[in-house]
Amino acid sequence: MTREEIEARVRALSPWFHNLELEGVRTAPDHFLGDYPGAVWRALAPALPADLSGKSVLDVGCNAGFFSLELKRRGAARVLGVDLDARYLAQARLAAEIARLDVELRQLSVYDVARLEGERFDVVVFMGVLYHLRHPLLALDLIRAHVAPELLVFQSMIRGSQGRFPAAPDYPFEERDVFDHPSWPKLHFVERRYAHDETNWWIPNRACVEAMLRSAGFAPSPVPGTEVYLCRPADPDPFGGPVYPARRGEDGGAP
Ligand SMILES: C[S@@+](CC[C@H](N)C(=O)[O-])C[C@H]1O[C@@H](n2cnc3c(N)ncnc32)[C@H](O)[C@@H]1O
């Protein structure tokens, strides 16, 4: 493809959320987050295995495929990117074609990851999706139950306190003040919009991110300077899995 052809195809698929570099063509040079996700990747990359030879990767909410492509570049045998939005998947398809990287792409909601059961994934990426979900804990439970990765690479937008909260095992009914502690785990509900985006539903503080991950059966370890956590499955899963049975049919997924 000539540069002009790439520019035309990038334009036809805009707007882009991922600022990719495709043979010198930038897909989102004026991104409101700056060089996104490049800046996140530079902080995260040293914390990830440098060699993913023989490993398989699932990227849930892959968008235009930035992380899928980077993990494929690290030698992963298989990378599957899934997203709810066909337009983003078309961007990812174009990016993979131009980068000449073999990344599989499929339209799938996180609520339907049970459809992937039986396919083994060593690494699952779940970045930037949690706060877009009306049922965030269900999504974490489903990932833990059905794709059970060795390593979950997780990120959420965080608002409110950055503090950690060492919760007691129990509190008496009369205890009220603890809920007003700034670092008590809180998931802020957005009834209308945040950042001009009506799909931002629940935005956790830092203690809440960590508590939710633990509650879904993961042992989270923060990547310094980021909102990213590397999570290993904790044994056992404290709550034993999702409350709703998995949908394995072809009935489509609700957002
Ligand atoms: C903020 S972007 C994050 C993209 C990428 N993971 C990253 O970290 O840069 C959120 C992505 O999640 C996708 N998404 C939203 N709801 C989803 C769902 N229920 N299942 C799968 N993907 C979803 C959106 O289409 C979008 O591509």
Describe the fold and architecture.
The protein has 255 residues and is an alpha/beta fold. The protein has one domain (35-167, 176-233): Vaccinia Virus protein VP39 (Rossmann fold), CATH 3.40.50. Helix content is 24%, strand content 18%. The chain has helices spanning 3-12, 38-44, 66-73, 86-99, 136-146, 206-215, and strands spanning 21-22, 25-26, 56-60, 78-83, 104-107, 123-127, 151-155, 187-189, 202-204, 218-222, 228-233. The strands form three sheets. Strands 5-4-3-6-7-11-10 form a seven-stranded mixed β-sheet. A two-stranded antiparallel ribbon has the order 1-2. A two-stranded antiparallel sheet has the order 8-9. Helix 3 (66-73) links the parallel strand 3 and strand 4. The longest helix is centred in the middle third of the chain and has 14 residues, at 86-99. Bound molecules: S-adenosylmethionine (SAM). S-adenosylmethionine binds at residues 17, 37, 60-63, 83-85, 88, 109-111, 127-129, 132-133, 255.
